[in-house]
Specification:
The protein is of the alpha+beta class. It is built from 6 helices and 9 strands, in the order E-E-E-E-E-E-E-H-E-E-H-H-H-H-H. The radius of gyration is 24 Å and the shape is flat. The N and C termini lie far apart (67 Å). The structure holds flavin-adenine dinucleotide.
Length: 286
């Protein structure tokens, strides 16, 4: 059987699951994939495209959907490299599910806006839990480097091993700092905090993966075997560079935000700094 089209993925505007307004509620149909925890879940928060109606704009709406609805079918499990998320990441198929108006979360048409509010702190909690595992990975590697004798010296005293250790300490501390900054900013200014959480997500997901990969390296063959849990840590954390917005999607948004901030500053009177003086004397540093 062929599977449904990959769906929206990185591009939420391509969302195809639709909710049609009917008397007293909505009827939803569509296919979702990679739905973490779907097996065994009692309900799901469903995002579906909804038409403009009255004051409500055309857009996406969030619904609370009972997983026991006769129109919900949890489909094939998708076997990803991570193994420890309860309920896996299966397909979920929705066929004419009736959702009452009382199960609309917030207002109709504002689903994407709510998703942004939720995603800021949600990204940070992923960063925090994976940072904890990165610390554990580094500690495992440090314990190994302490006792492992190579070329007549402990591994921890060999320069190239110290490079791996030091880079991991730097990755952990920079991740820690950016998480703390983003969390404080979310509390003070949710919009700016959400934008910084995007920077934090890219930095942490890449840095944490590097820390785990270096820990595997320092532990040699045991690092890639099941004698130590490091290879499994690496597998668990790898999808984090893809879900909750891939590194590239976030970088794209980060770059656009940076350009737009600077454009607005210049439009508001800030001096344009990239004028090139073509006179023979050249530019002077101010
Ligand atoms: C383990 C796991 C759990 C998940 N859990 C859930 C869940 O619970 N609920 C849910 O709804 N979804 C979930 N997802 C889906 C996840 O949100 C998508 O996988 C993610 O949005 C990427 O979409 P995609 O897989 O279709 O890849 P695509 O959208 O095809 O993207 C592929 C690649 O394109 C590149 N790319 C993307 N944007 C840009 C850009 N602007 N510029 C350049 N390159 C770009 C990136 O390298 C990206 O990795 C989960 C995924 C995984 C792997």
């Amino acid at each position: 059987m062929t599977e449904p089209h990959p769906g929206a993925g990185s591009d939420p505007a391509a969302l195809r699951t639709e909710a049609r307004p009917v008397d007293g509620g909505w009827v939803v149909s569509g296919d979702k994939r990679f739905i973490s925890g779907a097996n065994g879940a009692a309900f799901m928060i469903l995002m579906a495209r909804t038409p403009a109606a009255g004051d409500a704009p055309e857009g996406a709406t969030m619904f609370l959907l009972d997983m026991n609805d006769p129109g919900v079918r949890v489909g094939r499990q998708i076997h990803t490299v991570d193994r420890y998320i309860d309920g896996g990441h299966p397909y979920v198929h929705l066929e004419d599910c009736f959702v009452p108006d009382s199960a609309v979360l917030g207002e109709v048409g504002l689903g994407f806006k709510y998703a942004q509010v939720r995603l800021g702190p949600a990204r940070l909690t992923h960063c925090m839990r994976w940072l904890g595992l990165a610390r554990r990975a580094l500690d495992t590697a440090l314990d190994r480097a302490e006792r492992r004798e190579l070329f007549g010296a402990p591994l921890r005293s060999l320069g190239l091993a110290q490079e791996l250790i030091a880079q991991s300490v730097i990755d952990i501390e920079t991740s820690n700092a950016i998480i703390a900054n983003a969390a404080a900013l979310i509390a003070a200014d949710p919009k700016a905090g959400s934008a910084l959480s995007s920077v934090a997500k890219v930095h942490c997901s890449e840095a944490i993966y590097r820390v785990m990969d270096r820990a595997v390296q320092l532990c040699g063959g045991d690092g890639v075997s099941d004698a130590l849990p490091l290879a499994q840590y690496l597998a668990e954390v790898r999808p984090f560079r893809i879900y909750d917005g891939s590194t590239e999607t976030h970088k794209w948004a980060i770059a656009r935000r940076a350009s737009s901030r600077r454009r607005a500053e210049v439009a508001a009177g800030s001096r344009f700094l990239a004028d090139v003086d073509t006179a023979p004397t050249g530019n002077k540093i101010p």
